[in-house]
Amino acid sequence: MDRDELGSWLRLLETPGVGRESARRLLAAFGSPESVFAAEPGAWRSVVGAPIAAALAQVPERWEGLLHTTCDWLAAPSDSPRSLLALGDVDYPEALLQTADPPLLLYLDGYRELLSRPGIAIVGSRSASPQGCDNARGLAREMSRAGWCVVSGLALGIDGAAHEGALLGPGSTIAVLGTGLDNAYPKRHQQLARRIARDGLLVSEYPLGTPPLAANFPQRNRLIAGLTRGTLVVEAALQSGSLITARLAAEAGREVFAIPGSIHASLSRGCHQLIQQGAKLVATAEDILDELHPELRPRAVAPPAPAAVENSLLQALGHDPMSLDALMARTGEDAAHLSARLLELELDGQIQRLPGQLFQRRVSG
């Protein structure tokens, strides 16, 4: 994309009042952003009405600065390839074209060929439990080893764990941002974002400099769902953005998967609701692969490592959250001795301490 074409795209998308729907109508009528601005205002009015036509006649205030910033970003030395992808380009992702609201311009930092690889979205709570993060990381690793690209949103919790696991396999990962690519959010994941750009792909439909605005993240979720063949929700409360992603996936005709959890855990309630609504219950990566078309399975999933023989306290704890009193009743041990054993297991990373003085075992991915 040359500077003139980029300038036309940015002017079209930055014009106040021109949303994605109006922009698509203009592109359908005139063929390209450059042709839009070569047309007469009367032609615009016949397509989008007088108010938007009047706005198109004015150059957006920040257009020149944004054009300069974007050109500099594309040309700057980088450890990863940077590019733009417009609706209508030959390598625009087919999966996004099949959605109701495909983005018109994508900013890419990393390997754009990942957009054509079969993808699975793995999403979930930002305040995930350690076990939830272990599950996301392990399943993402296995899906990536099977040749699938893991797509998520770079958020804290489940998203970050999914990206980390996927980076361990050849399928790698795509992070879809709700900010500009020069403003990765959250700040705690900027190093992870750099790793993804180097070994995977960062994607955003928002121009450079876009801050983390709350309204952008639900919009970002439609791209996570749209780029993939299915969405796996690992942990989610009943009011969760992950459920929005799952709904968007279902509306686009994609598969929805969910990991069950304890009936006492609030972060399992969203997953249980999805399962009640028809999502497939997932315990292993094979559960996902078995549901998807065999031709989309590039290579076999590596078998899990043999489970270590667990000690008696882990056996007594089971997999649901449990209080110290309940463990005392189950094991017959006194509080002091049991607390010391629990601390050893916690320091060893085999259990986690939850709010309300509950304990839960961790199953490594």
Automatic annotation (TrEMBL):
Domain of life of the organism encoding this protein: Bacteria
Pfam families linked to this entry: DNA_processg_A (PF02481), WHD_DprA (PF17782)
SUPFAM superfamilies per the UniProt record, alphabetical: MCP/YpsA-like, RuvA domain 2-like
GO annotation, biological process: DNA-mediated transformation
Start and end residues of each Smf/DprA SLOG domain: 85-292
Residue ranges crossing the lipid bilayer per the database entry: none
Domain DprA winged helix: 298-357
NCBIfam families: dprA (TIGR00732)
PANTHER family for this protein: PROTEIN SMF
Family that this chain belongs to: Belongs to the DprA/Smf family.
Identification of the protein by name: DNA protecting protein DprA
Organism: Roseateles toxinivorans
